[in-house]
Every structure is written in C-alpha cells, then in structure tokens.
What we know:
This protein is of the alpha/beta class.
Amino acid sequence: MELNFSGTVDRKVNENLLKTERDSFVPQSKGPQTFIKTPSKVNKVLLLFPPAYTIKSSRDINPLPPIGIGMLASILEKKNYEVEILDCLVRGWDQEEESQANKDIVRVGLTNNQIREYIQEYQPDVVGVSCMFSVQHKIYPKIFSTIKSANPNIITVAGGAHVTVCSKEVLEDPNCDYIIAGEGEESLIDFLDTIQGHKSFESVDGLGWKKEDSGLILNPKLRWIEDLDSLPFPAYHLLDLEQYFGLEASHGIRHAKEFAPIITSRGCPAKCTFCSANKMFGYKFRTRSAQNVIDELWFLKNNYGVKEIMFEDDNVTANRKHATELFQSMIDQKIDLRWDTPNGVGLWTLTNDLIDLMKEAGCVKINFPIESGDQEVLKNIIKKPLDLKRTKGLFQHCQNIGLDYGTFLVVGMPGEKIEDIWTSFKFCAEVGSYSPHTSIATPYPGTDLYEQCKENDYFSREYALDGLFISSFMLKTPDWSEADLRRVLLKGKFYLKFRQIIDRPSDALKLAKNLIKQPGKVFNYIKRVSKSGSVWRNPANSPQGSLKN
Length: 549
C-alpha cells in the first residue's frame, strides 16, 4: 500500500487535532479582537530545553542538539531579536539529583539554582520553554517557577509535543503565561507581536492564553508551513554544537565523535493508533528540497567538522521521489558523510534500489519500524500501511549488501493476543533481527490508543503521565495481564538470543563476552522486566518524590 502525499488536508482535520484538550477550553471568540492591555517591549528572548528525569542505572534520555528551538532562534534573529539557547540537559549532563522517594530515579541536568542564576544574568524579556515529553511533565512546573523566581516580570511561553496534546494542563500552571501548539515558527513571531500590542490574541495560530473572566482559551491550529525551504537553518552558533560531540548516549550508537541531527520533512499521513506525531506537524507530508538539505549538510561539515548525520525524520523515505533525489545528490556532490535513521523510515515506499542508493550515499544502518510481525495486528489494530511479505525482501537485501539494520516493535496493543506477540518475535528471528527495539504499547495523550484504553478501562493502574515510559506496562486487556506481558517480553528476549546462537554460531562468543563484561546490565534488565510496578514508574508525581533544587 502506498500513501498519497500530494493531496491537501481538510482544515477540519486540523481543527479536531486537539479536540480532547480543547473541550476544556473556552471557545475562541468570534467577536471583537482582544489586544494586550499593557504592551511590553521585547528585546531579549531565551529558549530553554529543560533537565529530565530518568532511571539512575540506565539512562533512557538522549542529549541531542535541540534543533527545533535552534530553528526558532534563527527565526527570531532574522526579526532582530537578541536570542540565547540554554540546554539544561546537556550543560548539566554530569549532574544527578536523586529522588527522595525512589533512589532509582534521578534528575539529570542543571539545578534550579543554576538555571535561576543564568536567567538573572541574561535578563530576558521572554523565556520559551521546550516541553517535548509528557513523561517529563513534572519538570516543567519547576522550570516555570524557577523562571518567575528569577524575575516575575518575565513572560513565559511553552511549546512542543507535550504542550500540543496536554494544552490545558500546561496552561493551568500559574507560572506559565502562554502556550503555542503545533509547529511554532510563524506563531512565535506573531505572539511576540501580540504582547507588544501589534496584533490580537485571536490572530495567533495555535496560541493558548488566559483571558480575564473567560478562563483558558486555545486558538485552533489551522496553518502549517508549506514551503519548508523558507525556514532558516537552526542557529548552530547558539546551540554550541561541539558540546554534544563525543557523548556516549546520542540516539543510538554513533560512528563518529562529530555528529548532528537533521530534519528533512514534516507531517505524516499515516494514522498509527499509538502515535501522536501528526498532532504536532499535521497529516500532510511536506519536504525540504534536496538541495536545501544538501546545503545544510555542507554547512555542518565545513563549519563544524561534522562526520555523521542522523536523519531524525519520522519518515525520511516516505516520498520515494524526494528520497531518491536527496540521496543521489549526496552521491553526486560527494558529501561523504555517514548517516543513519534513528526514528526509522517509511517502509511502504522502500525498495531494493532505494536501499542500494542509501548505502552508496553513506547510510550505515536502517531502522525498520515494522511495529508488529503479525499482518492482522498491523492492519486492524495498529493500522499501519505495511506489507510484511514485501518487507521480508528488504531485510534480505540489506543482508545481501552488508548494510546493518534494526527493527522497532510495539507489543501489548489492545486486541493483540500473546500468540500475536510471539509471531512478532519469530518474524524478527526470521529476518535476522535478534535485538529489536521493543516498546510496550503506551497510551500517550492525543492518540487513538489512549481514547480506546480510556473508553474500555484498559489501564492496569491509575493513569498518570509519569508512567508514560516506553516500557511502562500500563495496560491490561481481557487477553492478557501486566504480568503476562512481562513474562512474554522476557521469554521473547531469551528466545531471540537463543535463535541468534543457533542461526549464527559465531555470535555466541560475542554474546558471552558482553555478558561477562556487563553482567549487571543483564540482571538489571531481568529485574526491571519481571518485577511488577518496576522503576519505569517515575515517582516524581508525589510530594515525597520531588527533587531538591
């Protein structure tokens, strides 16, 4: 099945993207326009990426250059604003604060005091906070409070994926003044114009704001940037790219110290039930021109010595014609960069010829997001447009040409049976993928999966955003319990390793060496998977679980 990427998207689709959250908001006024009573002159803007909570024994967070706010910074500079970027995670990557309630959970990044001191020194008029992950939702109020404690007159505005799907929760925070849902390059500039008295609040696409005597208001998100080439490159000079070079954890195994992420497209027309990506960037698939991407690659290579690229698109190959043009241009212009696809590729358009082109263009690994090895689960439960029979040939072709590959699985979907999960593990063994990245179905806000679980009471415990880790075991269904799911995951792990030894005897020695070298990692994995209510449940949602400043 091949998706149509050329059609336009009905505006009503976008109007309904945030329906669940918007039902709690006062509808946008269609009457007189609202202007700010006391306009504020804005000269300096700080864009902040927060610290994060994680598991102490095995960090599951990635310190990547936040190119999203890097692009916002470029837009602001073009409008003559003074801008700085503060990535609290990477700047405090060697700092940990233990939770008082659970010693297994730590906060990584700058402390609140360090953040406060930075803000007091820079003295911004506006601070934009990147709120990407719902599982980190408890860190955001701490950041808003820290900003206001540095200077109560600072205007705070939040954006990102979590803000987009949990708008009401974020905006209810008394220290969060505004939010922007969805892609924000154009809306951020309009917002700054608004607080300076030049535009009305109602005119800002996707803006969440607080109106006296009217409660919280969220403007519909209706506009998406069609010409991605019109956007500038991220402000790499503000990101201080070199501070990320050589970090051990960087969205997969890196093949070079000097690396950088890049995005070539936005939007996804697929409607996978567990995913909310289209809430952030819409359903229509939009791409940058191949030459625009090439220009950025040359910029990174010539100015920062970058040797490896991660295409962070959700579907970098979703448009076969565009992907072919991009990879052929990389070859023709001798860009000579290694690269991979940490988030996977659009498998429905992938062919052997395109894989050959990818390898020639510098690809060192392809991640196949098959999600399930059972065709009926894909079709009727996950609703992903993928033919597994055709996909098997792609795996085989990678083996034939010596291109490394991985697989993504999502198990534990409502309607999926234990035998279906085993079908997925067996499929991975058949295609020679013995260490699939296996996520437990997680009901993120804004997804069809969440609505299904809410309607049918499939939660194994009280629903909380703190529990939205990719292996949180939050669900139970009539077909299996949380304990059943834990058992099959552990058995599947051992089954795949057994199959690897049988199919590839030469790998046995390597597996044994890894076990001897890191025995604690293996036993810790077994403990976390087998123990009900494991440490993947973040305790920071309780007062006792809060971290010191």
